[in-house]
Protein 1
Amino acid sequence: MKGLITATALGTVLMAGAAAAQEKVMISDPSWNGARAIGQVIAAIINGPMGGEAEILTGMNQQPVIYAGMDKGDGSIDIQPDMWMPNWQSAWDQYVDGNQSIRVNQPYKGTSNIYVPAYMADKVSSIEDLRNPEVAAMFDTDGDGLGEYWAGDVTWASTKRWQIKFKTYGLDQLWEPNIVSADTFKAGLAAAYAASQPQLFYYWTPEALHVQYDLSIVEEPERYDGCEDVDLDAENWLEVSEFDCVIAPNDVHVAYSASLESRNPAVAGMLSRIQFTGDEINGWIVEMFTNKRDPQEVAEEWIEDNQALVDGWING
C-alpha cells in the first residue's frame, strides 16, 4: 500500500510537470514583417511538432511593454521574436544582463541603412549629396522648406538613432523626420514609385521591400572608434548623442522570458537552440506578405521541408 501511495504521488508530480511543460506560450507581434514571420514559424513549431500551444498576441507591438511583460514572467508575454541590437541596449542591460529575466538565442545578422529609389541614385548617392539645399527641396512635400525622410515608427529605438545621425551629419537644418508607422510609409512609397517621385527612408534587411523595389543605399562614412556615442534613454537624447558613421551589422535575437525554463522547459530549450538566417527570414516575408499566402501555411511548409533542422532545435 505504501508503495502504491508513493507511486501514485510520483505519478501526480510527473503529470503536474508534464502539464507545466505544456503551458501556453504567448508571442508578441512587433510591427515589422520580419518579426511577424519569425513569430509565425515559432508558433507553428510549438503548435505542430512540439504538440504544445502557442498564441500570437495580435497588436502587441509596443516594445517597452513587451520587454517588461517578459520580465514579469507571469505568462502574459513570453517571446519577442526579433530583438534588434544595439537598438534595445537599454532593455538588454536591464533584463538580459541585469535582472536575468530574459534569455536570447544566437543571433542572425541584419543591416540598417538609408535608401532612395534607384531612379534617384543619380541625384543622391551619399550623405554629402543631402547637404545640397536643392536636393533637400526635391524631398519637401509640405512646403515648409525642409526635405522629409522616413525615420521609422514612433515606438522604434532606430527612429531616434536616425534623428541623431541627421543632427550629427549637420543635416537637421535641411531635413526633418517623417515619423509614421511602417504600413503608412510603405503605402506612401508605393505611390511615390508609381509616380517616380523622390523618397528618402531608413530600411533594413531582411525585408521584402528589397524584392519589391530597386533600392539604392545612400553611402555613409565608414566606422571609426567613437563615431557612435548614443544615449537613447537620456531625457535630452538628441542633444547628448552623436552618430556620424554607418550602422554596424545588427545582431538580431529571439528573446524569451527566463520563466519559460520552469513554466515550459521544452519550449525554453527549443528557443535557446533556434537559429535563423537572413535569407530564410526574407523568404518567409516574401511568401507571407508579398505573395500574401497564409502565414501559418508558409510556416508549416517550411518546417516540413526542414524537419531535421527543426528536430534538432526541439530535441537538442
Protein 2
Amino acid sequence: MNPTPKVAIVILNWNGVKYLRQFLPSVLSSSWPNLDIIVGDNGSTDGSLEFLQKEFPQVATICNDKNYGFTGGYNRVLEKVDADYFILLNSDVEVHPGWIAPVIGLMESDPMIAAAAPKIISFADKEHFEHAGAAGGFIDKTGYTFCRGRMFYEIEADKGQYNTSDEIFWASGAAMFIKKHCWVESGGFDDRFFAHMEEIDLCWRLKNMGYKVMYCAESVVYHVGGGTLNTENPFKTFLNFRNNLLLLKNNLSFWRAFFVIFIRFWLDLLAIARFLNEGKRKDAWAVSRAHQNFVRHIFSKGPGGRTKRSNLHKLKGMYKRSIVWDFFIKKKRVFSALDPKDFY
C-alpha cells in the first residue's frame, strides 16, 4: 500500500467568491501530506479569479471558457489534473484538518472501492445531517433516491446512529472521493445532466462495472447546500425530474428501463398535481418540460453506453421496495425504520 497516494481536492466554482472566501481556509488546513488544492472555474464573472490570485496565490486554478455546469465543468477540469485520487468538493463545504486520511485509508484497503463519501452534516445546524448525501445514498426499485439520515424532506439529527462505515449505492457530489483510474474508466460525468443526480449516475455506472461505493463514518464535513440553485428554483425541479429519467435509461437494461420509466411518468403526473395544488405552477411546468426534454433526447447516449446495465438485482444499496410507499403511506420516516432485509 502506498502510504501517501497523491490526492487532488478540486473545487468547481461558478460565481462563488463568497464561499471561497468563507470556506477555502478550512480546505487549506487539510493535513494530507501529498495534496494539491485546485479551483476549477466555470467562467465566473464575480471576480473569483482575481480574489484567488490576490488572497490565495498558492491555490492552482484551471479555467473553463464558460459555465459548462457541474458535469461539463468537472469533466473538462479533471482532464488536466494529475493525482491518484480526486476529491470533488463543493465550494460551500467546511472541513477539518484530518478529514482526508480516514477516507483514503478505507479506499486503499480494497482495490474494488472506486468512490466514497464522508458523513455530511448541515453547516447551519451541526446537530443534523445535510440533505445532499447525509450518511450515504441509496435508491429504490423505481429510481427514487434517499439517504441514511435524510428521506425526502425528513432530516434526522446525528446521534451516532450511522457511525459505521459501509457500502452504499451513491456518494454525494458535495464531497466525493474517487480513484482517478475509475473516473477515467467510467467516462466521468454525463454532460447531459448539467447538474443534479450526476453523481448517482456515475456511482451506478461504477457499480455496473463491478466496483464498490463506500460511506466513511470517520470523516465529517459541513455543507451549506443550495449555494447555486436553491430548493425553490424551478430549474432545479426540471433538472431533478429530467435527470432521474436519464439515470434510469442510462443504467437499466432496455426492458427494465421501459417498465420503470413508464411507472415514473405516472408518478410524476401526481407530482404535477401536487405542485398545482400548492400553487407552484412554475414547478408543475418544470416537470412537464422535463418529460418533453427527456423524450426529445431519448436516443442520445452518455458515457454509460460503454458499460453493462443492470436489472436492479444484487447491487449493494438498492432498496427492493418503493420508498415512496413506505414513507408516505406506511409512515416510515427514518432510515432505521426500513428492514435491512429489503436491501440488496
Protein 3
Amino acid sequence: MSRSLIASAVLAVLLLVAASSSLFIVNQAEQALVLRFGAHRATIREPGLHAKIPFIEDVVRYDIRLLALDPPDEQIILGDQKRIVVDTFTRFRISDPLKFYQAVRTEHQARAQLSQIVSSAMRRVMGQVMLPSILSEERAHIMEQIQQEVAERAAREMGIQVVDVRLRRADLPEETSQSIYDRMKSERERQAKEARAQGYEWGQQIRARADRERTVILAEAQRQAQIERGQGDAEAARIFAEAFGKDPQFFTFYRSLQAYRHALGDGNTTLVLSPENDFLKAFGSGPGSRR
C-alpha cells in the first residue's frame, strides 16, 4: 500500500472524527447549552442538527417538557397549632437553561432544592391558617398563595417555571388520629353507658308502673268478686227463704240431706248417734221425722 493511500485513509478518519465531534442533534423534547471551556456560548431551543467546535465546546442538554416533583410526606404545624401530614406534588419546566445550569447543574439537584422551596412556602403560608380552612373552599386560595411564592423563588433562583403546586392529601398524624379515635371511642362508650343506665331506669319505672297497675287491677277484681259473691249469697239466701216459705218440711229435709252429704260424703267418717238424735230425723227414726 502506497503512502498516499495511507495518508488519505488517515485524513478521512480524522475528518470523520472531526465531523462527528463538531455536529450534534437536539430533538424536539430538548434544549441545549453550548459551552466553550465552561463559559456559555449559545442556547439552542430549536430542534435539528447543529454545529460546535470539536474538543473545545461542550453541549449540555435539558428536558423542555413538564417535569414532576413528588416529595415525601411531611408534618406541618398550622396556625391553630394543629399538626397535619401533607402530601404535595409540583409540575415544572426548565425555562432558563443557562440560569438552571449556573444554579443547580442537574435535575436531581434541582428537585432537591425545589423540594426545600415548596416545603418552606407550605410552612409559611399554612402556618397562618386554621385547620377548618384547609378543609373548606379556602384551600384553593391557600394553594394559589403557595404556588405563587414557589414560582417566584424558583424562577428567580433556578430559572424554573413552576406550572402547578397541588395538595394531594392532608391528614392528621397517626398518633393524633389514634388519640382522636380513642377519645371518640371513650365518648361513645360513655354515651352507651348513659343510654343503658337510662334504659334500666326507664325499665324500672315501667315495671313499677305495671306492678302498681296490676295490684290495682287485682284489688278491683277482688272487690268486684266480693261484691258478686255477696250478691250471689244474698240471692241464694233469698231463694232459700222463698223455698222455706213454700214448703218448710221439704226445705228441712233438703238441708238435712246436704248435712249428711258433707258429714258422710268422703266415706271415711264414722258417727255414733242414738236413734233419737235429731240428726237422724230425716230418716224417720227420730221424733219429728217425716212419716
Protein 4
Amino acid sequence: MAGEVLRQRTLSALVLAVPVLFCVAAGRPYFDVMVAVGAAIMVWEWFRLCSSAFPLLEAIAAGISILAALGLTGFDEAGYGLLVLAAGSVLVAALSRGRWWFSAAPFYIGLPSVSLVWLRGDPALGLETVLWLLAVVWMSDIGAYAVGRSIGGPKLAVRLSPKKTWAGLLGAMASAGAAGAATAAVMALASVWPLALVSAGLGAAAQAGDLFESFAKRRFGVKDTSSLIPGHGGLLDRVDALIVVAALTALISVLGGGSMLAWI
C-alpha cells in the first residue's frame, strides 16, 4: 500500500510539474492566470474544509477579492492589491458574523498568491526567484519525507502532525539549503553560503506551513482538503509549504529593496 501511494504521489507530482514550470518560464499572462486558477481552487477547498455546509456567499466574496488583488498586482499595483485583500477579509467576516476561519481566506490564500505574481513580475530576476523558491519548497518536502521516514526518532509536533519528526525537519532544512547552494552556484554568486542559509531557513518555514494546515484539518476533522490530486489530496495539501515560503520571501524582498537573489 505504501509503495502504491508513493508511486501515485510521484506520478501526480511529475504531471503537475510540467505545466507549472511552463507557466513560470512563460511569465505573464500565463503565470498570472495559473496563480489565479490555483487561488480559486484553494478558496473552494478552504471553505469546504472549514464548513460542512458550503458558505457560497462568503466564498464568492473571498474569491473576488483575491482575483481583484491579483489583477492589480499584474498591473504593478500590489499595494492596492493588499488593501483589497484587507477589505475582502472584513467583508467575509461581516457575512460570516465573525467566523475568523472564513475571514482568514483572503490573506491565507490571497497573500501568497499576490506574492508569487509580484515576485515573478520582477523584470530582472523574477524567473530565477520563482524557480529558486520552487526548488527550495520541493527539496524541503523531499528531504523531510526521506529523512523522516528513514531515521524516525522524536516527534516534532504530535498534536498537529503525528508523523513529523525532528529528523525530518533537519532533513528539510538540509535539502532546502542544498537547493539554495546549487542556485547560488548556477548563478555564479560570490558565495553560496548566504543563499544556502536563507534557503535552509525557508525550508523550516515550509514545514511550519505544512504543520499549520495539518492543524486546520485536525481542527475540522478533515483528512484532505479535496481529492483533486491523486496521492496528494487537494491543491492546498500540495502547496501548504509554498504558501508560507512565498509570502515570507516577498516580505523579506520588500524589506531588502528587491529580490533576495540580487543582494544576498
